[in-house]
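Study this fold:
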Amino acid sequence: MSKPLLILNRGESLAAWALSPVMATPFPGLPAPAEDKQNYKYINGFVDVGDLPCRVATWRDVATRTVTLDTSWPVESLYLPGANRRVEFSQFRSTPTRLARWCRTSLSAPVDRYCSFRLSTRGGVHIWVDGEIAARFEPFTRNSTEQSVVHLPIKAAGSDIMVLTEDMAERDTNWFFELTLLDDVPLAVHLPGAPADAHLDSLKALAAEVRPAGEFTGPNNPLVLEFDTPATLAVAIHAKVGSTSHAKHTMLDRTVTLNAGETKVTLCRGDDLPEGYHILDLTFIVDDTRVSRQIACAIIHDIAPQPRHADIADRKREALLHSAREGEMRMGTALAMLAAGLPPDQRFRDIVEETLTLIEERWDCADFVSVPLLWAYARYAAQFPTDLRTRTETVLLNFRYWVDEPGNDVMWFWSENHALCFHVSQLMAGQIFPDGHFTAANRNGNEQARLAAERLHSWFDAVEAEGLAEWNSSAYYPVDFIGLLALVEFAPTDIATRARRVTDRIFTMTALHTLGGVPAGSMGRAYDKELRAGPLTELAPFATIAFGKGWLNQGVASLPLFAAGSYLPPPELNELAWPEPGSAVTAHYTQGYDHATHLSLFKTPAVQLSSNAGAKPGGYGHQQHVVDVLFSAHPLARSWINHPGEDDPWGSQRPSYWAGNGVLPRAAQHENIALLLYDLGSNPRLDFTHAYVSQAGVEAHLIDGTLILRSGNGLLAYKATAPLEPITKGPSKGREYRCYGKVMGWMALVAEGDDMNAFARRIAGLDLSLDGRHLTLKGLPSGSIELDWNAGLSVDGKAVTHPNMSIEPLIQRRKLSETMAG
């Protein structure tokens, strides 16, 4: 037998497989109304909303079907050990889709024997050994990890292992399986169809290490892929980038060659791609062997925040024209074209037709585009080409506006942003077609509008009392604006007044957490894009229009509604977004059901520290971004601490490696200092927490175990209760500092100043210690700060509670000298 690819030992997961293409089949099930679990009590994280028709149909199918082994499939790529111990194919599907993929590998044991594996899966798994079915495990629960133990007969001469992995995709689908060896026996792994050892080692290294050079690429710079290990032979790298609109369009499709001995290759020029945070689908190719990898890159054409017109009306007009000309292919762009007075052209037709298809086929997030479509129709129906106007009327009358109307789609109705957009869509459609027959609901427009108004009042009752579960989210505030800005324009007076009041509050929170033109801070929901590329979020242009300086980009989910509408944010917010030199702004408030979020902000012109002391310690973080530091000297100069929620630095789970928390900390903030206390449990999947440090505009020094960061006049110090270990290779090279352990504590302290050495000497006098689950910081001028897992925060021996338990921010403006705790 040939030399094995690797030896699998006890406790290790089998992550070496030859893969078939993914088989994707529409599988909607029979239309039915869903259980209306909307109680208007919004919590942060995934909500179990019952079983949709597609999942009910899947269980019925699984219960009666017979699955046969297929060995005729072509090998599309290899899955190799590296970034992820799971065999993972997570993805997003906007319509109900059954997914399947064949996987093959070979194992040999020292002697013929049965070997036990822990099988973890989201979806269903069949396993064949040497052509005979050996295991079947088909829970098919939605995004819930299920486990079983399987016993596989492994021969000394080698056994062929075939796996069929399947899942029922409903929107975001965390699809994977993992086979972890439980027996204390070494198994040799052979991968059928793998190239020579040297070739395979090179492909493994390249796929595991690949990253873009730098935090972003400008228009006049090349987009470079870099690696740590030189290629051992010439490797073709095929790169593909799709658009961010619902109907994917290919924006880049090319192949480049990484020559033997090289660690860098130019993929394209920055201006070959539009501005955006793009997903790069990479395939490394040697002869007939292919290894796939997915990473991300930021393309930013203007890195500095640009001054805009002095008058907000002029800024709105500039943004409207920018959206009309540069916006992505979404309905907001078509609305911007009409509002800007541009004639409907082929681009307008393409956008509207795509939008109508999404609504017609009831894609997830159809509610996000139905509102701007309704706005455009309400204001500019006469400008629609006749066929598009007729089709628009038909599509809007046939749409499903709530869960009580029968359907077999996977549209998400239950989060605060989707509930709002569906209710607004139902209200606007009912008002536009008062006597029209809405086929899904079997109601007329007047009845639809009445129901929508009742539901909207329930939504406002909740949000006005509790605030938002998706606090400060630069991903979802723009989605909230879709509904709120439309209500300001089109709703009855009582609802429009409530919408204006909530919109004012969101702009206030945005102003508080905007620094250098970048909206940031602790967030209820964050993705990598919001954390790593602030100017590319759609909330950044909102801040630009509202506060006078910043970026315009391709985001058009709701920006054209702001630019074309009558709403104006309170003018006094500008001084919160751009604080005066020598001053500090602090804020405290709560958000979310039952005061789930306790937000604290410390902000100077140079640096901003934001945290959430309400995070449930030890809980699951989903997309919660607990603590955040932002510098003003560079728009990508940012840092934060989290516990990774998955293995892969380029992964897309919720929580991911950088966004959210696998395990939430106990957190607290006192003035310019945040403390975090982590207890990862007895058997964490990843036994470390870590800090992300941007390389853009940030100078980093690890001095005697303390990490000192400087960006402009902004300073940040990290201390931890275990050594901080810099990562020197792979996707996080130079950006990641890990703290290993199951129980650990962190300190983050921000300050302003131009003498980093003096700051470092001052920080060296601080002592951070851990006693069980009690964290103590000593050496401060104001005394000690302590954080206890159960009791919370105390300062100089006195318990400190959150200063303001209202959703209305308690804002204070003070001199810097009066606010520095350390």
In short: DSSP finds 16 helices and 46 strands in the chain. Residues 583-699+741-818 form one domain.
